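Re: Re: token formats

Sure, here are both.
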Amino acid sequence: MLEQVLADLDSESAVLRGRVAGLDAASWASPTPARGWTVAHQIAHLTWTDETAALAASAAAGDPDAARRWDSTLADALQEGSIDARAGELATLPPADLLARWDGSRAAVAGALRRVGSAKIPWLGPPMKATSMATARFMETWAHGLDVAAARHQEPEPTDRIRHVCHLGVVTRRFAYGVRGRPAPTADVLVDLVAPSGVHWTWGDPSAGQRISGSAWDFARVAVRRMHPADSDLVAVGADAREWLGLMQAFAGPPGDEPPRLRPAQP
């Protein structure tokens, strides 16, 4: 399972790298949908989080130097604004240097995850196993790739690799409530999605009275808060399902910003 996720991560990273390789300085400075972030900030953030994930995995694998450095990195990362500041620092690198550093960080995190075995990896949120960390790295790479594609006025090609993002969107239901200081409902919600290839993916009890259905592509974008649910093709049946769709958040950290509406609200 880990190798499959890492292979998909490598493929998704190659797509994003292809979008930015060869851009001139002005294009690297283009604004993206993330407020205050340029294309360079997006790649810089991925570089920092990949380096940090590699460090955390090395610490979990028993490297004492990595463990000491992880403690320091975690203390810094938990300071308000620190993660954005690290991205801002790396974004000042010349584009070729930033790309080379991102390449190195991706190789480092893949190698560290292969070495960690069954140990749980410390993180900015709950500790996780290697496959879960690889899935999280995929999700973040894909999400920031959406931002870069938007800045380049390009339309990403949907692939079935987004199943990793959809899975995170489902399994983080309790987290999405908890990060907002709210208890998660206990009623099961069936998630029934159509993949880009046309196959169906489902999570939850098929007999559940509440459900979310629609395209996996829109579900994934809602899960990373790049699309407002009302602009998606998703259909939520039941009060809990509708509420969850509005709170959904596949990434760690504080509640994400409300995605802007692209279509006028219906009266």
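Second one below.
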Amino acid sequence: MDFFEVLKRRRSIRAFEDQAIEEEKLRAVLEAVNLAPSAGNLQAYDVYVIRDARRRTALVNATLGQGFMAQAQVVLVFCTHSKRAEIRYGQRGVELYTLQDATIACTYAMLAAAALGLSTVWVGKFDEALVREIAGVPAGQRPVAMLPIGYAAESPQTPTRRELRDLVHEVV
């Protein structure tokens, strides 16, 4: 699929089919994550892959009742890895660059999934301590985004977007 077509077709999906994701597709999504740009090419993030149905169900509670977490076949948990950035960038690396790195990687995963005919929704509303426990995230890492992935069981309308004139500001 053409890149700009991927951008146009991608939607936030909150209902998933009970259909397994092919291993080669998941691998392609994870390879896209590994290609994401990062500050100093340090890749100051880690990704936890949750396939287990029991853990995905536990994520429903951790996301304050977002039931689609259990429907998705896979959930990727994107975490900052502060020590990787702190070495080169100090506190700014810990507070900002790791967050940017993890969220850029999540965006790459989202777009790769869309290009492969898979669906996702960005999840940022969750109890960090519960997600840390469910995913086995070690100290020094912080969960900042989750990406449930699966085959869509819904087809939402195209959302309205802001006009470029309201969004983009030319500085002269």
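Helices lie at 3-9, 23-35, 53-62, 68-71, 82-115, 128-135, 164-167. The chain has a mean pLDDT of 96.
- S.
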